[in-house]
Design brief:
It is built from six helices and 13 strands. With 207 residues, it is an alpha/beta fold. The chain starts with a strand and ends with a helix.
C-alpha cells in the first residue's frame, strides 16, 4: 500500500488522480499513525518551506518521516517535498528534515542576472530532463530528454552530486531527480507531466 502524506502543504488532488489512473491503491492521511503500515510513502508539497516545516512539526510527520526513511521505507518527495528532505532552505532561513545532505537556494543566489537574461523566476512550465549518474529505477522506461512540468523558485544543491539522477537546464543546471538510497525526489510534478510522469510514479510504486 502507498501512503500519501497530507500535511496541509501538498498538491494532493493531482497526486490522487494520477495514482487512481494507474490503478494503484493508496491511503491519504493527515495522521502519521494511519500511514504506519504503508510500504512506500509519497511526500508532495507546494508553497513555502517555513510553513511546510511548521505543518510537519505540528502533525508529527517530521519525526515520522525521519523514522520511516531510516527504517528503509522508500519515500518520493515531489516539488517542495523534494526540497525539504534536505538540511536547510534559503527560503525563510528554514531548517528542514535533513534526510539527505544539502541546501536549497534561490535561483538568483546561485547565478545572479538570470531574470535579465530571460529566465523568469519561478520556472513555470515544461522542460526536458537529462539522465545523470546512471539514472535511477524510477526513470526506467522514461524516454530520453522527456519533457516534465516544473514550478519552482528554489534549487536543490546536494552535498554529494552523485545523488543527482537527472537535471534540467534553466540558465543553470537544475537537479531534477534525486536518489539517495531509499529516498527519491522529483523537483518537477510527475503527476502533471503526462505519460512520462506517470511512468515515474508507476516505477516508484512498483520498485
Amino acid at each position: 500500500m502507498i501512503g500519501i502524506v497530507d500535511y496541509n502543504a501538498g498538491n494532493i488532488t493531482s497526486v490522487e488522480r494520477a495514482l487512481k489512473s494507474l490503478g494503484i491503491d493508496f491511503v491519504l492521511s493527515k495522521k502519521p499513525e494511519e500511514l504506519e503500515n504503508c510500504e512506500k510513502l509519497i511526500f508532495p508539497g507546494v508553497g513555502d518551506a517555513a510553513y511546510a516545516m511548521q505543518q510537519l512539526k505540528e502533525t508529527g510527520f517530521d519525526e515520522f518521516l525521519k523514522r520511516k526513511t531510516q527504517a528503509g521505507v522508500p519515500l518520493l518527495g515531489i516539488c517542495l517535498g523534494s526540497q525539504i528532505i534536505f538540511d536547510w532552505s534559503e527560503e525563510g532561513d528554514t531548517k528542514c528534515l535533513g534526510l539527505v545532505k544539502g541546501k536549497i537556494r534561490y535561483f538568483e543566489s546561485i547565478k545572479a542576472g538570470l531574470s535579465e537574461k530571460g529566465f523568469k523566476i519561478p520556472q513555470i512550465g515544461w522542460n526536458n530532463i537529462e539522465v545523470k549518474n546512471d539514472g535511477s529505477p524510477i526513470l526506467a522506461g522514461v524516454k530520453e530528454n522527456a519533457d516534465v512540468y516544473f514550478v519552482h523558485s528554489y534549487v536543490i544543491c546536494p552535498e554529494d552530486n552523485s545523488v543527482i539522477k537527472a537535471t534540467a537546464s534553466y540558465g543553470i543546471e537544475v537537479p531534477a531527480v534525486i536518489q539517495s538510497g531509499n529516498i527519491f525526489a522529483c523537483q518537477f510534478h510527475p503527476e502533471k507531466s503526462g505519460e512520462e510522469g506517470l511512468k515515474i510514479l508507476r516505477n516508484f510504486c512498483t520498485i
